[in-house]
Amino acid sequence: MNWLGYLNPFHYLAGRIFLWFWLVLLTAVFGTLALSRALVEQTEIRRLPHTIAQQLQQQLQPFADSRDSAELITRLQQHRPDRWLVVNADSNSVLTPGLLPRDFDQNWLTELSQLSRPRWLKHHNTSLAGPFLLQLGEENLALYQKRQRPPQPWWRLSEIPQHVLLLFTLLISAVASLILALSISRPLRELLQRNLAFADGKLDSRVSNLVKRKDELGRLGQSFNTMAERISALLTNQQRLLRDISHELRSPLARAQLALGLTERQNNMEQLPRLKQELDRLDVMLDELLTFSKLDAGQYQLQQQRFDLSELLADIIDVNKVEADAKQQTIQLTAPHVAEIVADSRLLARAIENILRNAIKYGPPRSDISCTLQQQQQQLQLTICDQGPGIAAEQLEAVFEPFYRVSDSRTASTGGTGLGLAIVAQIVRQHRGTVVAETRSEGGLCIRLTLPLNCGFG
């Protein structure tokens, strides 16, 4: 029947964890209990310190003048009742048997009587110190001082009845197993519910209780929230991309159509340069989209080679110097004479040029742009800084995300697809390096690339 399936604990993660953990725990506890009862000896003999032996010997001196064992026992009972055990050393018979515990094996006294020096015998809560030999007439007596140790606490394993101990073990292990099972299955149920809600289109669905844990389940909840946030951001950025790209494509296409219309109407070639410019913009935009999609999918074939990064920097600056001169900007290069690196020169050149062009674009006229290359152990660090408006601190990480733009303006001077720095981040990541953005206190933005000397890809 179907209801039997619902009652089957193996159909639930909590039930399986509970049963298996309980079984393992009971096996370990019962095994330990059986082993401890088999190996632990309830009676043991230890060495009696010499000072204590002397003190006990002195306590017996006043009784050494007794006529016989009966008088000795009477005097001992009057002085310290239930303190001294008297044994006939010749026959090994206990003359005061009422002082011994019921489960005490008298053979232990025989063992003690054969020792040359007094010893300390412990049996459960009773301890005997001896033997101390006395000769009264023809009787050879062995005396043992008896001391009753304080009763053991009720929680001591040896004091608990075995059937009570088993029931108590079953109860504690069941509660512990149930708590463990629920602590694992309950947060997983929350994760499952949020996952299903996210799959149904509720993109703001996040786990809350699970992330408070400090274990692997807590990190699983954090990773789910991180994944959900990134997916939400990607979907939002993709929607924004479609809107922005449609706008960007519509503008140059409209201008190109206008230029063609004017050319046809005026029957001259004056609009051809403008038409070529708009088509070039479309080509650059599509090239960026294609490059980023290949890098993001890992389909870009990297070509490893050894080259001088200082020389590559100088070439990139020379190429972009015309654009900088148009804004009366000065590009300052500080680099070692030779800085060799093993990487893909083609991709690195594109990443560096993207950063430099951004610095030229957003730097004010008659400003300085600094390019600093330093070698630190097995790494090269390139820092490009401008004197532009900079970026807010909360946006520094987001600028490397695809389709992100600091400004929502769509003018020809500041517009863009938001893929330039995203391409930089992908290129640096594939070279096993890092890229960070920093806003300087005096104003301006710095982009810092850190690359290993041997990127080791491929």
SSE layout:
Layout: H1 2-7, H2 13-39, E1 43-47, H3 50-60, H4 69-79, E2 84-88, E3 93-94, H5 107-113, E4 119-123, E5 126-136, E6 139-148, H6 162-199, H7 216-266, H8 272-297, E7 305-308, H9 309-326, E8 330-334, E9 340-343, H10 345-362, E10 368-376, E11 379-385, H11 420-430, E12 434-439, E13 445-452
Parallel strand pairs: 8-10
Antiparallel strand pairs: 1-4, 2-3, 2-6, 4-5, 5-6, 7-9, 10-11, 11-13, 12-13
Helix pairs in contact: 2-6, 6-7, 7-8, 8-11, 9-10, 10-11
Features:
458 residues; 6-stranded antiparallel sheet; 11 helices; 13 strands
Describe this structure in words.
- The protein is an alpha+beta fold and 458 residues long.
- Among the domains are: 68 residues; 86 residues, Two-component sensor protein CpxA, periplasmic domain (Beta-Lactamase, 2-Layer Sandwich), CATH 3.30.450.210; 152 residues, Heat Shock Protein 90 (2-Layer Sandwich), CATH 3.30.565.10.
- 49% of the residues lie in helices and 18% in strands.
- The chain is built from eleven helices and 13 strands.
- The chain has a six-stranded antiparallel β-sheet, sandwiched between helices. A five-stranded mixed β-sheet has the order 8-10-11-13-12, with helices on one face. Strands 7-9 form a two-stranded antiparallel sheet.
- α10 runs antiparallel to α11.
- About 1% of the residues have low confidence.
